[in-house]
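Incident log, structure service

09:12 report received: a user says their structure output differs between two submissions of the same chain.
09:20 pulled the input from the user's history:
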Amino acid sequence: MLHRINDVCDSEAIAWQLLARLAVSITRKQGKELGFGESTPDKRAGKDEAELKNRIQELDYALIFHGEENDEIKGIERNVPGKNFSESLVMFLRLLGLPLGLPLEIILLDWTKSNYSQSRAVLEQAFVSFINRQFKIADFMMTPIFEWWLRGELAAGLKVGGQFMESLFDHNWIMPTFPWIDQLKEALAWGEKLDRGLTLHQKALKSLGVDREDEMAAREMEIEDAIERAKRIKGKTGVEVPWQIFAGLKAEGQGNTIVLDEGDNSNDKNKDKKKKDNNE
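09:34 re-ran on a clean worker, output below:
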């Protein structure tokens, strides 16, 4: 298929080159005699005929025909460039990507004709192929290398407790994840899955290329630091500040509330609603 695409592109390029050359007809008295010294035999004609009658003059960017009066040369109308060249080339590329599990959008890196749903669909199709290759690389390359290295460390005197020996070779690879097309929609989708128990927190973090153990350890340190900062502020000022704001989390009771102007006495219902929201 690659050879076919290459041939199609070569033929189209040659057609463009031919189209760029100029065909000029010169009609003048004694044109044959004058042109005889300026031209060469036409190799497409017979030997005798070419020497005496059909003569052409070929320049870098022009093809000149020398003839007598009433002689003429006509160009053959051609469909150049190919009328369906772009469509044909796109189809070739689509057929090329099918055995590899690569949609056309990925091959051309062009998403101008795709919306969010189409983009996600083609990426999921490609990702199925990617996952198969990832598992093969992990099973046949990465895991043997890891186990070989670990055996070498054990042979060199690595001390491991007996209770850990059974799980010593257990491991988990964090592979390249599915690309996020629209981060807001992807985050909302993962949030819904987590809330309904349709997935695990570990898988959600893996979709971001993050290891859960590392993330939880960092989160633990961040929360402890946030609590300590809130305590220091309270000790200095006597004001209790929610520690969540130092960890990028929503404080308890924090939400999107509408703050009303207390000086506006025109709507008592709004004031009552504000008091109720604050109490909640």
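09:41 both user submissions now match this output. Likely a transient worker issue. Closing.
09:42 reviewer note: The CA atoms of residues 134 and 198 lie 24 Å apart. Confidence is low (pLDDT under 50) at residues 256-267.
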